């Protein structure tokens, strides 16, 4: 018997997650000393120092099982004026998305989202083997009216990331309110706010904490602005009935003890948050302007990355390789479903400078490049 026959077709057809190139492999390949890794929307300042200290303090007790995120849930409930029953903590927001999919999707249910949605969601939803329907972007933004119109009797989950990855675009409060009016209560909306902190000061950005809707679950993470991507800690808010059922499915011992301690301490690290946001705002401006000066289209971003739209797939592949050879690792978006686009995370000021210099060199070396067609 061939092993493959054991695998359902919807798993067989999945593409395994391709991590971006590591700093070490690029260093070796091109014999470079300076590398800027701008491919995974990580915090270039490193982890929150308070979070690191808090993790250290847990080490003597690592022989004990974790308490399932109880302490972090309590802290978050207090911080956001909710009941603990409305809060869940997990191994990153992706961990919680996995639990949502296992908890709420039946075999005949359908998932609805935008084209080229966050790849983590695409993979988790497709691995459930249900129908996965998408609506094209409207000028790189969610087309919320078209999504509302596409809801049918089988739609069970609508996934919205705000700000969106990979475009960096947001939808506004007014747009969401309008959309929400068209969503039946039997449909669960996942509002993925992994990049919330970067957008929250924009007055048009909806703070979903004010949405006390029974069918909306908000997800946030410590992976981005708090610099804890390697620790795997995220959280969600929802109606207590949703959380109660999610907790049945969640692995009882996630998040880990160090991850929970890191999350609690990171929330208190306001100085780090402030520094990270300032650096990022500068980085988004610098990268956007630098790419625009080369005549490139850049989607206005409210997150910690920018997406640039190239004329075609070949040019995107060529640019990716060329900037790599200058020590700049960016994210090609073919796996998301946008082979002609590239996403660049903000780095330190030095990283961002290296990045724009590399892009300039690519275009200088290709005078009359196809972008001018
Ligand atoms: C929209 C979105 N949601 C979730 C995540 C994953 O977050 P976590 O590290 O908490 O699983 C990411 C990470 O890139 C993301 O872009």
Describe the protein's architecture and organization.
With 373 residues, the chain is of the alpha/beta class. It has helices at residues 9-12, 23-30, 49-58, 70-79, 92-104, 119-126, 144-149, 173-180, 196-199, 240-249, 257-268, 270-293, 313-325, 349-364; strands at 36-37, 87-90, 110-114, 131-135, 155-161, 188-192, 216-221, 234-237, 297-299, 305-309, 328-329, 331-332, 341-345. The strands form 3 sheets. It has a 7-stranded mixed sheet, with helices on both faces. A 4-stranded antiparallel sheet has the order 9-10-13-12. Strands 1-11 form a two-stranded parallel ribbon. Strand 3 (110-114), helix 6 (119-126) and strand 4 (131-135) form a beta-alpha-beta unit. Helix 5 (92-104) crosses helix 10 (240-249) and helix 13 (313-325) crosses helix 14 (349-364). The model has no long low-confidence stretch (mean pLDDT 94). Bound molecules: pyridoxal-5'-phosphate. Pyridoxal-5'-phosphate binds next to helix 5.
By secondary-structure content and strand pairing, the structural class works out as: alpha/beta
Distance between the termini: 53 Å
Mean pLDDT: 94
Helix content: 25-40%
Low-confidence stretches: none
The outline comes out as globular
Radius of gyration, CA atoms, in whole angstroms: 21 Å
- Measured by DSSP, the beta-strand proportion falls in 5-15%
Count of beta strands: 13
| Sheet with most strands | 7 strands, mixed
Order of helices and strands: HHEHHEHEHEHEHEHEEHHHEEHEEEH
In spatial order, strands of the major sheet run 2-8-7-6-5-3-4
Hetero groups bound?
Answer: pyridoxal-5'-phosphate
Tally of alpha and pi helices = 14
């Amino acid at each position: 018997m061939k092993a493959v026959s054991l695998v359902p077709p919807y798993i067989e057809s999945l593409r395994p997650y391709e991590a971006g190139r590591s700093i070490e492999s690029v260093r070796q390949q091109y014999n470079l000393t300076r590398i800027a890794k701008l491919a995974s929307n990580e915090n270039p300042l490193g982890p929150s120092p308070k979070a690191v200290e808090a993790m250290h303090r847990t080490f003597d007790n690592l022989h004990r099982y974790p308490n399932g995120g109880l302490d972090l849930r309590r802290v978050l409930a207090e911080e956001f004026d909710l009941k603990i029953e409305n809060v869940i903590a997990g191994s990153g927001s992706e961990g919680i998305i996995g639990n949502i999919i296992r908890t709420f999707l039946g075999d005949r249910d359908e998932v609805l989202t935008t084209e080229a949605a966050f790849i983590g969601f695409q993979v988790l939803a497709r691995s459930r083997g249900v129908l996965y329907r998408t609506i094209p972007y409207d000028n790189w933004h969610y087309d919320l009216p078209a999504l509302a119109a596409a809801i049918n009797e089988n739609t069970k989950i609508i996934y919205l990331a705000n700000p969106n990855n990979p475009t960096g675009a947001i939808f506004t409060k007014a747009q969401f309110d309008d959309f929400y009016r068209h969503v039946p209560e039997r449909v669960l909306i996942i509002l993925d706010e992994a990049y919330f902190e970067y957008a929250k000061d924009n007055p048009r950005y909806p703070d979903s904490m004010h949405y006390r809707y029974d069918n909306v679950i908000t997800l946030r993470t410590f992976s981005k602005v708090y610099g804890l991507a390697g620790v795997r800690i995220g959280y969600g808010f929802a109606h207590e009935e949703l959380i109660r059922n999610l907790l049945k499915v969640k692995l009882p011992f996630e998040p880990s003890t160090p991850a929970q301690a890191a999350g609690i301490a990171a929330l208190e690290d306001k100085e780090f948050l402030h520094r990270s946001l300032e650096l990022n705002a500068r980085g988004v401006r610098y990268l956007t302007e630098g790419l625009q000066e080369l005549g490139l289209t850049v989607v206005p971003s409210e997150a910690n990355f920018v997406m640039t739209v190239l004329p075609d797939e070949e040019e995107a592949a060529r640019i990716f390789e060329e900037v790599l050879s200058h020590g700049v690792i960016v994210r090609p978006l073919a796996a998301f479903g946008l082979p002609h686009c590239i996403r660049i995370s903000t780095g330190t000021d030095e990283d961002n400078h290296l990045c724009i210099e590399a892009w300039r060199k690519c275009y200088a070396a290709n005078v009359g490049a196809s972008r001018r067609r």
